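Allow me, if you will, to draw on your knowledge of protein folds for a short while. Thank you for your consideration; the sequence and its tokens are set out here:
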Amino acid sequence: MSQSTRLLLISDFDYDLPEELIAQRPAPERDASRMLVLDRATAGWHDRHFYDLPSEMTERDVVVLNNTRVFPARLIGRREPSGGRVEIFLISERAGPLVWEALARPARRLSVGQRIAFGDGRLRAEVVEAHADGRRAVRFECDGDFHALVEEFGRMPLPPYIKRAQLEEGGDDEAARDRERYQTVYAGRTGAVAAPTAGLHFTPRVLDELRARGVTVVELTLHVGYGTFAPVRAEDLSRHAVEPERYEIGREAAEVLNDAIASGRRVVATGTTTVRALESATDEAGAVRAGAGLAGLTITPGYRFKTVGAMLTNFHLPRSSLLVLVSAFAGRELILAAYRHAARTRYRFYSYGDCMLIK
């Protein structure tokens, strides 16, 4: 089989990472994170910090942010009547009243009909469907407003590689810090079960400096779902599909983006979620459509990017769909070489880690 017709395998997107480089906590200051600037044209890179981002931009650039807000989707509850501890991770709301699809742990303890109480008992649930992959459908009952109770009892849905003490209920200082730092400073529309982590580095100061340089900043919304981070279980990437996620692009934002595209200005996407929203919203004629839709693209090498001209992104897990996406943008060999440099020079990886600007 020739190189040009060779299958794309997820094992081609692997790399070694010392465990100590997996960031367990954010940098003391958001914009003090390190930033590896990768130049696709020269296949070179240089090391900077995120507070240097404005100096990497020009007045012709349009920076696009995802303003989704993470809600505390991890609920720690007690099985009734035994009192055994269980965790329900809310994934998506179904059409039925107060019915949610969720991941359950330990799933074997949560069969259909099992009832669960959360917090002081004002929020309760019953398992109405059970699936072999650990997913459950749960129907909630509540004394008061459901969303307010989730905000009160829930914990931020940190990825499993970020280790925290397993507390029964309530919060502590670290949980309170996670509620602030696992959220962008411009988060506005609630609906995500994971943070758009490339945006975690922004501060009001950096945003002000970008605008002072003449950079245009626009927002869209894509509610990050579990599917973005679900493991790739197929070796052949043509057999893997990222679950669709809902997005919305306002009329004014679409007009700004279309004007930029028409005039040859660079669109800089903040994060892979923004990339998927923009590319999903762009038609074959190259116009960004305003309105709501589903980002159903699975972006792999060979994909032709229609809108995105530069990308700000964190460092992603080996063998992940996100690493495949950035490799589609910059080339697998260049990305993996840059990752090796980042590991050698002690960059911090994953959600709370450092970032990369791909130009």
